[in-house]
Write a structure and sequence with these properties.
It is built from 8 helices and 10 strands. It is α+β, with helices and mostly antiparallel strands. A 6-stranded antiparallel sheet has the order 4-5-6-9-8-7. Helix 1 packs across helix 3 and helix 2 crosses helix 3. The chain is elongated and about 70 Å long. It starts with a helix and ends in a 7-residue tail after the last strand. The relative contact order is 0.14.
């Protein structure tokens, strides 16, 4: 059976990527150069590149070309409720947290709606970027109900808020409702993160509850698309 030319090109490029001949963050040759290399048309090359993109091998970035993605992405548990400090200890990478904004504010409309706060009720806002291996690739925007979290400091936010809440305040953090969406990068994403040409973010939205079912936190954790994969464990119930 005759194999389509674009499938042959796709398989050859997958072999090059998986063998390490072409490495993560390398830019593939231009479409014209690939046409010359494989002796084929631009349409055929584009089909092969589209297949590579669909299967997570490359990302087409305007003005840059086709960039090879790191398929060994950092694993973020979907079901677990874990602080960044706890997670960073499992990554085996150099990490740092930078606090960009901290204070009591009237929350944005979405945060107010999720927290169910009164119109004039102020909450703690914490905006932090997370640097991993030299790149700022996560932006965390947290909102805490003041009656549960009466005080926050920059030092606490640079270290671990959950460690402070559980260890110092004695709060019992129990469970969260999570939603994962893809959104266009916003002004703060572009300001605080190294987006690397990516125009969208993977956003994990959490409503976090105490053991007594009190909702005390709403957070948006905004991740650069190429750096993470979200993992879960599921068991079929009969």
């Amino acid at each position: 059976m005759k194999v389509n030319k674009y499938i042959t090109i796709y398989k050859d490029m997958v072999r090059q990527i998986e063998s390490g001949q072409r490495k993560a963050e390398d830019v593939l040759p231009s479409e014209n150069d690939l046409c010359d290399q494989y002796g084929t048309s631009r349409e055929t090359v584009r089909k092969a590149l589209n297949m590579l993109a669909q299967n997570g091998y490359i990302q087409k970035i305007k003005g840059k070309g086709s960039v090879i993605l790191d398929r060994e992405k950092m694993r973020f548990p979907v079901s677990g409720l874990i602080s960044f400090k706890e997670l960073s200890e499992t990554l085996g990478k150099e990490t740092r947290t930078t606090v960009h904004r901290l204070g009591l504010i009237l929350p944005p409309s979405e945060a107010a709606k999720e927290l169910g706060t009164e119109a004039d009720e102020k909450v703690w806002e914490v905006v932090r970027s997370r640097r991993i291996d030299g790149e700022h690739i996560i932006l965390d925007k947290d909102y805490f109900v003041k009656k549960h979290v009466p005080l926050l400091t920059k030092a606490i936010c640079e270290d671990s808020i959950y460690e402070y809440l559980e260890g110092e305040l004695g709060l019992s953090i129990s469970y969260a409702q999570k939603e994962i969406v893809v959104e266009p990068a916003g002004e703060e994403d572009r300001k605080y993160l190294d987006l690397g040409g990516f125009s969208h973010m993977a956003v994990v939205k959490n409503r976090v509850f105490l053991e007594d079912t009190s909702l005390f936190q709403y957070t948006e954790s905004r991740h650069r698309l190429d750096k993470f994969r979200f993992v879960d464990f599921a068991r079929r119930e009969k």
